[in-house]
Structures are given as structure tokens and as C-alpha cells.
Design a protein that fits this description.
The structure holds 2 protein chains of 2 kinds. By secondary structure, chain A is mainly alpha-helical. Chain A is built from 14 helices and no strands. Chain A has helices spanning 13-38, 57-65, 68-99, 105-117, 124-133, 140-144, 151-162, 166-174, 179-190, 192-208, 211-216, 225-233, 241-261, 263-274. By secondary structure, chain B is mainly α. The chains are: A mainly alpha, B mainly alpha. At the A-B interface, helix 1, helix 3, helix 4, helix 5 and helix 7 of A face helix 1, helix 3, helix 4, helix 5 and helix 7 of B.
Chain lengths: 276, 291
């Protein structure tokens, strides 16, 4: 990602740099505020003086005030479950679309693409009733199940599989490899960057998902972090911004840290995943 | 697997994903339409066919119209701004400005933060008396204002949060598109004596058009999906001034437990998304080829 030096007159370069930085500071403001408040005593939550003492007490208080370890475990299980299911199901479906000609494949593909528009997030009433019927309500499985089949994943992998040279496939067939072996030994390894890109998008989406988990869960045992945080911060005992920002930072920390460490890969994979 | 007739194998590969897609996308979409013609079962009264009764109720429901209007304003207010900012950000981080890495990080960070978490922080920004915004306006000697408590400003305040959340995400797509524009074009334009401004409007902007269409579709879908911050910050209030369609569906379905009216509302949302889908398949896919 090396940008060429601009061939245009550089008159406004300084102005551009300053504006870009002002906007960046505005964009970081919520995070900067959260960092300030979470690491200072409550008395300094809204008083921004440079000599305010630092403390970790807010994190300790937040950690003890709600079952955050359980919420972390739930979210971890949830995103893992969804990711594994999505990778397997998308791979199989994408392979079918990319390498087989069969009657009805176009109709089926259209049915898949429809999910890009109508995501399960919209169909909360009906899906809630389905979960009730299946007796799955208030389980981690019920949060993940509607997202197991991902149109985005199928679409992305289909596009990638289509770029695999047909000759590789044919050579493997001549060698006597089965369709399964061809998929696992030719297609899947070649699509590795796309798997990583999709994985990052999927994990961050479902780590952050809120409305559906809010509806379908109502106990500590199944609640993910996002819902746990909401339950925690909407208690009536007066708003303690220091503790809430500490909890907020804890909730976002794993993704934020991963993002800081793998910034380049993160951005590039989002780009790769976004380009059609 | 090798012995199977070749027409069975693709269906076998496809079926797990298709079953789940049908169960949680297609079936519920159709069931929603079907259930919108029935009444909500309550206690001893079972659900009965009521025809278009739910829709007639909807036509007379001022909250529905308000949520719909709010949603349209929300889309109109956030999308152009988010896209314009995304282009600006992408242009900046595509050039060799000082601290480009940090800038990229700053713009993109809201995308990875959970909306539900940052909504708490925004809530504090808008808090009357001691919130950050109040401290700034107070220092400037401006009168105090309850941004989220006032029907006039609440939707605007929420739109700011949405733009902040989305612009950096869209920036990534523009950045990707900008990097595919050959630097030869910039050199040629500069040689011809074009200004940076002319180069953007005559060369870059037109070449970014497919990206803009793609981003626009995504932004439209998001405008009807993004409600996390409403749950945290306003609960649709005051006086439904910040209620959006999906939030109203959530409220009707899970606070008032009126599932058939919620179904009818969902049908409207589905129709809107269907309209977007139609435009997408008609206009966009004529340009982008999937084969």
C-alpha cells in the first residue's frame, strides 16, 4: 500500500494534513474519553485536569459488579460456533455453485443473494417464535443459528473458487481424486486469504451483534457481552460513568487489541472482503 | 462421494446451507406476510383471520408514520454525509500525509467497536448539565441544551453517531478503489495543468462511481437495520421522535407482545428492502458481472 507522491502542486498539503488530523481526533474522541474516565477516579470523570491520579479501581469494580467472565465465555463460544458453522456451510455451498452445473443453480443462487438484503436481524418476531418452537430460546445456539448460513460467505467463496484454474481441478480428477479431496486439497488452500478476511469480518460482526441476542436471551448463562453490558449499564442505581466506561472498554478490548495488533491485515482483509 | 450421480452431489453440498437459509430467512419472510393477516392470539382468544385489519390499523397509527418518516430522514441525513466523509478520508489516507497509519487507524476504529458499547459513551457526550457537549457549549457561554431529551434534536444527535460509526467502514472500500486507479492518470492530468480539485471531479470521482453505488446499497440497508444505539440512548423517545422502523417493530413485538401487528410492520420493512434489492439487481448487476 504505497501511495505515489502527488504530482499536483503541494500548496495545500499543510492544510490537508491539519484537517485530516482534526477529523481523526474527532473520530477518536469517544475512545479517548473512555480511556480517560476509565483510568481515573470517579471525581475526575468529567474534570479533565492533567494531574488527576490514575487508577485501575474502575475495572475492578466493573468486573465484580457483573458476571463478565461468563459473558466473555458466552461471546467467545458464540463467535466460534458461528464462525465454524459459517466456514463449513459456505465452503460446501460455494463449491457447489462454483464447480457444478445443475438445474436450478441460478434460482438457488438468487435465493442465497436475497439474504444480503434481508438479514435475520429484520425477521426477529418470526425467528423468535421458531426458537420458541424448537425449545432453543435462551441458549447460545439460538443466538447463532440464524447466522450459520451466510450469503456473504457463500458469495465471497464462490467468487474465489471460480478463479481457481479449471486445469488444476481436471488434473486432480485424472489422478483419481474424489470431489471431496479436490475441494480440501485444491480449492480450500488456494482460498486461504479469503477465509481469513471472512473470518475477521464474521468475528467482529457477531462480537458486536446486539438486537437479536437481546431478544432471544434472558439469563446470565447465555447472554453475550453486548447484552450483558447493556443490562449492566441500564441499572437504576444512578449512572457511574467511570464504571460504565471501564466495562465498555473491557467489552471492546479484545477486538480493539486484535485490531491494533493486526491493523494492516484487518484493513486489508476488509478491503478484500468488500471488493466484488 | 465419487459414485453418486453428478446431479445429486451439488444438491448434497448445498443442502445444509439452503435448509438454514430457508428456515431463518425465506420461511420467516413468508410467514411474516401470512401472519400479518391474522390477529395476535391472547390468552383464551386464539388467532383469527382478520384480512387487512392490521394494515388498516397501521394506516391510522401515527407512531408508525412517525417511525417511517424518521427512518427516511435518518437515511437521507446519514448516507450522503457518511459517503462524503468516507471519500474525504480515503483521499487523505491514500496520500502521503504525515502520520497516515494513525489517521487510517483513527477513522476505522469505530467500525470494530461494538455500537452498544460506544453508545454508552455518546450518551455521556449528550448528557445535560455535565456531559462533554454541555461542558464545551457552557465554556463558550451558550445556553444549556438537552440534546436527547428534545424531539427537535434527538434524531440529529443519533444521526451523528451513525455517521461516526459508518464513515470509516465505507472509507475502506473507497481506499481500495482509489488504489486501483493508475497513477499514470494523475501524472497525465498534472501535465495537462489540471488542479487537484479538477483531477478529483473529472477523473477520480467518476472512476469511484461503482464503489459509490455499492456503498450506497450497503448504507441504505444499514439505515434500516441500525438500531442498537437507539435502544441504549433514547428508547425511541422522547415522544417517538427517534423511533425507527426496526426499533418500532422490536417495541411492538417484544414490549407490547403484539406479534401480528409487528408482522405487518415487518412486511413494510421487507417491502422497502425489496425495493432496494430490485434497484440493486436491475441497475447494479448490469454493470458488475458475477460470472
Amino acid at each position: 500500500m504505497i501511495a505515489p507522491t502527488s504530482p499536483f502542486a503541494e500548496r495545500h498539503r499543510a492544510l490537508e494534513t491539519v484537517s485530516a488530523w482534526v477529523l481523526a481526533l474527532l473520530w477518536l474522541l469517544p475512545l479517548l474519553y473512555a480511556l480517560w474516565t476509565a483510568f481515573h477516579p470517579a471525581a475526575f470523570a468529567t474534570r479533565f485536569v492533567p494531574d488527576a491520579p490514575l487508577t485501575l479501581q474502575n475495572f475492578v469494580n466493573a468486573w465484580q459488579a457483573a458476571p463478565f467472565p461468563r459473558y466473555f465465555l458466552n461471546t467467545f463460544l458464540l463467535v466460534t460456533l458461528i464462525l465454524v458453522a459459517q466456514l463449513i456451510l459456505s465452503t460446501l455451498a460455494a463449491y457447489a455453485f462454483a464447480r457444478f452445473t445443475f438445474r436450478g443453480s441460478n434460482v438457488m443462487f438468487m435465493l442465497v443473494l436475497l439474504q444480503l438484503m434481508v438479514m435475520p436481524d429484520i425477521l426477529i418476531v418470526e425467528n423468535y417464535q421458531t426458537m420458541n418452537l424448537l425449545g432453543l430460546r435462551d441458549t447460545i445456539l439460538s443466538i447463532g443459528l440464524p447466522y450459520f448460513a451466510s450469503a456473504f460467505g457463500i458469495f465471497l467463496l464462490r467468487q474465489t473458487f471460480k478463479t481457481v484454474p479449471r486445469e488444476l481441478d481436471e488434473a486432480a480428477t485424472v489422478e483419481g481424486a474424489s470431489a471431496w479431496q479436490i475441494l480440501m486439497q485444491v480449492y480450500v488452500p488456494l482460498a486461504r486469504p479469503i477465509y481469513i478476511a471472512f473470518g475477521l469480518v464474521s468475528v467482529s460482526t457477531h462480537w458486536n451483534n446486539f438486537l437479536w441476542p437481546l431478544i432471544v436471551t434472558n439469563s446470565v448463562e447465555s447472554r453475550p457481552l453486548t447484552v450483558g453490558l447493556q443490562v449492566f449499564s441500564s441499572t437504576d442505581q444512578g449512572v457511574d460513568w467511570s464504571i460504565i466506561t471501564a466495562a465498555t472498554l473491557m467489552t471492546s478490548a479484545p477486538l480493539l487489541l486484535a485490531f491494533l495488533l493486526f491493523q494492516r491485515q484487518f484493513v486489508q482483509s476488509f478491503m478484500r472482503a468488500g471488493i466484488r | 462421494m465419487k459414485r453418486l450421480p453428478s446431479s445429486v452431489l451439488p444438491w448434497l453440498l448445498l443442502s445444509p446451507a439452503m435448509v438454514l437459509l430457508i428456515a431463518f430467512t425465506h420461511y420467516p419472510a413468508l410467514a411474516t406476510l401470512w401472519h400479518s393477516f391474522f390477529s395476535t392470539p391472547k390468552g383464551a382468544r386464539p388467532s383469527v383471520f382478520v384480512g387487512l385489519e392490521n394494515y388498516r390499523l397501521m394506516a391510522d397509527d401515527p407512531v408508525f408514520w412517525q417511525a417511517l418518516c424518521n427512518n427516511l430522514w435518518f437515511a437521507l441525513g446519514t448516507i450522503p454525509l457518511a459517503i462524503a466523509l468516507a471519500i474525504l478520508m480515503a483521499l487523505w489516507v491514500n496520500e502521503k500525509l504525515a502520520g497516515r497509519g494513525v489517521l487510517r487507524l483513527a477513522y476505522f476504529t469505530p467500525t470494530v467497536l461494538p455500537m452498544i458499547a460506544v453508545a454508552n459513551i455518546w450518551l455521556f457526550f449528550y448528557t445535560p448539565q455535565y456531559g462533554l457537549l454541555e461542558q464545551i457549549t457552557g465554556a463558550l457561554g451558550l445556553p444549556s441544551h438537552n440534546w436527547l431529551g428534545n424531539p427537535q434534536t434527538v434524531l440529529g444527535a443519533l444521526m451523528v453517531v451513525a455517521v461516526w460509526k459508518e464513515a470509516g467502514f465505507f472509507m475502506i472500500f473507497y481506499l481500495a478503489a482509489l488504489q486501483q486507479i493508475s497513477p499514470v492518470l494523475a501524472e497525465a492530468a498534472a501535465l495537462e495543468g489540471a488542479s487537484r480539485w479538477q483531477y478529483f471531479w473529472r477523473v477520480q470521482f467518476p472512476l469511484l462511481m461503482p464503489t459509490t453505488l455499492f456503498v450506497l446499497i450497503n448504507a441504505l440497508i444499514n439505515a434500516f437495520r441500525l438500531v442498537d444505539h437507539i435502544v441504549v440512548m433514547t428508547k425511541g423517545g422522547p415522544d417517538n421522535a427517534s423511533s425507527l422502523l426496526l426499533y418500532y417493530i422490536y417495541e411492538v413485538g417484544f414490549a407490547f407482545w403484539d406479534s401480528s401487528y409487528a408482522a405487518a410492520l415487518t412486511v413494510v420493512l421487507l417491502a422497502l428492502l425489496g425495493l432496494i434489492a430490485l434497484v440493486k439487481f436491475r441497475v447494479l448487476d448490469r454493470r458488475t458481472h458475477y460470472q
